[in-house]
Amino acid sequence: MDQNRLQTFNERINDLVDDAKEQPIRKKKEKVNLKPSIYSLEPHELKQWLEENGEKAFRAKQIYEWLYEKRVKTFEEMSNLSKALREKLTDAFALTTLSTIIKQQSQDGTIKFLFELQDGYAIETVLMRHEYGNSVCVTTQVGCRIGCTFCASTLGGLKRHLLAGEIVEQVVKVQQALDETNERVSHIVIMGIGEPFDNYDAMMSFLKVINHEQGLNIGARHITVSTSGIVPKIYKFADEQLQINFALSLHAPNQELRQKLMPIARAYKLEELMESIRYYTNKTGRRVSFEYGLFGGENDSVAHAEELAVLIKDIKCHVNLIPVNYVPERDYTRTPRNKIFDFEKTLKKHGINATIRREQGSDIDAACGQLRAKEREQETR
Known about the structure:
This protein has about 375 residues and is α/β, with parallel strands linked by helices. The chain has helices spanning about 5-20, 45-50, 60-70, 85-90, 165-180, 200-210, 230-240, 255-260, 265, 270-285, 300-310, 335-350, 370-375, and strands spanning about 100-105, 110-115, 120-130, 135, 140-145, 160, 185-190, 225, 245-250, 290-295, 315-325, 355. The strands form two sheets. It has a ten-stranded mixed sheet with strand order 1-2-3-4-7-8-9-10-11-12. The chain is elongated and about 70 Å long.
């Protein structure tokens, strides 16, 4: 193996180990041996690890088959590997970093999982059923530092970033649940707890693993990543030239209102944010989706819709109007149905492509971060 590549790979493994060790240990009654998740490794990285540890590179494909096709829950189940290799894998990596605390199922088929991590923190993952397939909404952080005033995910602030493997394993866990009914995860949205662009490198590693043909093989155009508007990372993401769908949580048509709803707007003004979005659409040729939550009496008038149409009129885009889920810890109320339709009608009058998001999971803790806030109050104070 080329020594420079080997050095780079060893640095990558060391980073995974260091990241795992640096996670705060929350459990008091037991010692937690934090290891890097094997789900963090792309096939070529796994091949390099195998060669460095005296094993044949072709074993990587076999291991990936066990992980992503057979979806085993222990290394010991990888029966076509030698006992020595299984022991090496067990010593070096964690195969399970998530355990299910709660599984809520809605009448409409939506399932929300509350998972516990190795260090005792909790995260949410949601399965949503659509006519076009099964979509999984994944979390990228424990908590969030962005501070949006309408979101339960920000309660208690940011605890830590997730490792790439912890994000991948959320999808694997949901797929294991779907295996019971012979269904398949077909779409991914990175819109759960946390700001994906605040954990950019782990997010990118996650994308590469789930998109890989030997991994979960989920097509790039079936994956959507959403950001609250970290401008430098929008430029960086545009330069990646991916076929991944891109969404921006906009929620307001002007600077004053946006910074009231989303404190990040104080750091990245609306004008520079929109310039980065234009860069993205020009660089990639792809459209952007604007996520626009409707909050009663705040941002939902026809006048707001008119202002929004002017703001985005020259951008290749789609507006996703979101009737907000009520969050007890927040003061916002849902926009009346007739006003939602008036908002949509106004945008369409100006030639803006807009749809109203179908409500899902209304009979469970549907709002992002709500189940975690309810069950893990000590984490969200």
